[in-house]
Design goal:
GO terms for molecular function: glycerol-3-phosphate dehydrogenase (quinone) activity. This protein is α/β, with parallel strands linked by helices. The protein has two domains: 259 residues, FAD/NAD(P)-binding domain; 123 residues, Rossmann fold. Helices cover 27% and strands 21% of the residues. The chain has eleven helices and 17 strands. The strands form five sheets. Strands 1, 2, 11, 12, 13, 14 and 17 form a seven-stranded mixed sheet that branches. Strands 8-7-9-10 form a four-stranded parallel sheet. A hairpin with a 2-residue loop joins strand 15 and strand 16. Helix 1 runs parallel beside helix 11 and helix 7 packs across helix 8. The longest helix is centred in the C-terminal third of the chain and has 19 residues. The model has no long low-confidence stretch (mean pLDDT 93).
Length: 421
């Protein structure tokens, strides 16, 4: 019996999950096909809309700054309402797990590198540490972990001009782990309040250790490792024992905050009735004229067709291999969609490491319904739409706009696919 749905979404990250949720709101049968593990687990867990535009920023109001973007930017093509619709879908999916939905203004969040990042949505566990809150802050890191140098974080945050005093200390964690232990192991110990010396729980032991190094601060920030399943309970326990606010600082990959977000979004897909197929790559397609009939998925060497009425391509950009490049040029490997680029590959980048690189904006060119277009500007396929990093026109790393672009493009692509299926 052939596999058939109304909408098929190819991809597994923020754009793919959002597009699937948007399509499912139409009541249609939706399936998500993902090859690799989601890139969400490599991300900070923060949801950026727009922090910088045309080299200026950070911007307090991301919507006001959109007028400064180029006309081929996805925000300019889709408009402000698409961004708001993407955020609505996200907010409904994550519920109280995230904060920031009460305002259009960016929050300023300290990160593990000590930067203060403008972001639109952030985990509730991060909220007490916002740089706009005038409370003296102690940052705590742990011996044996290399991803979070507390004194460096404190120094960099202070240099950003925050209105409070900062200090950093590096302490031994109350329980010893292998030298290569990841933050997820620390989180598990706190989740289960594992026993340490003399039968004391690790939460109490941690609070006792930190308390010896406080000096009148109002709050304390830890790398994002304060529990996984029982994170709220861990923070409340530490706050009660320390007598101050406790918050998490987003870390680099593998990111516990990113893993939690991935779990929540996939739970939302289950709740919405979206079918999920993971672990096998999409390797080709079948078309009849200007309409795609099926996408082929490699399953143990066999090409299995997944049929649908509408398709959404959300496979990522250059990092996620949704866009590929070599000495011959730049391509979109699944549907061979048009990706504009200079013929001379030396024109793809600038000499300055943080310059305005052309490669950062590589991707398919969508119409207003997010259908990838040909070199002449016509939709390549009537029933194919694109979302997320595979869409070109935005330097999302420089702008701090990756999540917002994913949400906006996915809301339109998934919503239109659901309507047309």
């Amino acid at each position: 019996m052939p596999i058939r749905d109304d909408v098929l979404v190819v991809g597994g990250g923020l754009a793919a999950t959002t597009a699937a949720l948007a399509a499912a709101e139409s009541g249609k049968k939706v399936r998500l096909v993902a090859h690799k593990k989601s890139t969400l687990r490599q991300a900070s867990g923060l949801i950026d809309v727009l922090g910088y535009a045309d080299g200026d920023g950070p911007h307090a109001d991301p919507y006001a700054a959109m007028a400064d973007l180029s006309e081929d930017h996805p925000y300019r093509i889709l408009g402000e309402e698409a961004v708001r619709e993407g955020l609505r879908i996200f907010d409904e999916a994550v519920g109280e797990m995230y904060a920031g939905g009460h305002t259009d203004t960016n929050a300023l969040v300290p990160t593990y590198g000590g930067t203060v990042k403008p972001t639109a949505r952030y985990p509730a566990s991060v909220a007490p540490g916002l740089a706009s809150i005038d409370e003296d802050t102690l940052f705590v890191g742990f011996e044996g972990t290399t991803d979070f140098a507390a004194n460096v974080v404190a120094e960099h945050v202070a240099n950003a001009g925050v209105p409070f005093e900062t200090r950093g200390v590096t302490l031994p964690f109350p329980k010893r782990f292998r030298a290569d232990a990841r933050l997820t192991r620390f989180a598990k110990a706190l989740d289960e309040d594992e026993r340490v010396d003399r039968g004391v729980g690790v939460r109490r032991a941690l609070a006792d250790t930190v308390r010896e190094h406080t000096s009148g601060e109002d709050r304390v920030g830890f790398p994002a490792m304060l529990g996984d399943v029982h994170g709220d309970e861990v923070r409340e326990d530490l706050e009660s024992r320390l007598g101050m606010s406790v918050f998490e600082v987003p870390t680099g990959p593998p990111s516990l905050l990113g893993l939690k977000l991935e779990d929540r979004l996939f739970d939302a897909l289950d709740d919405a009735g979206v079918r999920i197929a993971t672990g096998n790559p999409a390797v080709g397609y079948e078309a009849d004229g200007d309409r795609i009939e099926a996408v082929y998925v490699d399953q143990k060497g066999s090409r299995v067709p997944y049929h649908a009425e509408q398709f959404v391509l959300a496979t990522g950009g250059l990092v996620g291999k949704g866009i590929d490049s070599d000495r011959e040029g730049v391509t979109e490997p699944l549907f061979d969609c048009h990706v504009p680029h200079a013929e001379d590959r030396y024109d793809w980048s600038e000499e300055a490491a943080f310059g305005d690189h052309a490669f950062a904006r590589f991707g398919v060119v969508p119409d207003e319904e997010m259908r990838p277009t040909t070199a002449s500007g016509e939709p390549q396929f009537e029933n194919l739409r694109a979302a997320g990093g595979v869409v070109g026109g935005a330097d999302v790393a420089r702008e701090k706009s990756a999540s917002g672009v994913s949400l906006a493009t996915a809301a339109v692509a998934g919503g239109r696919a659901g309507e047309e299926a």
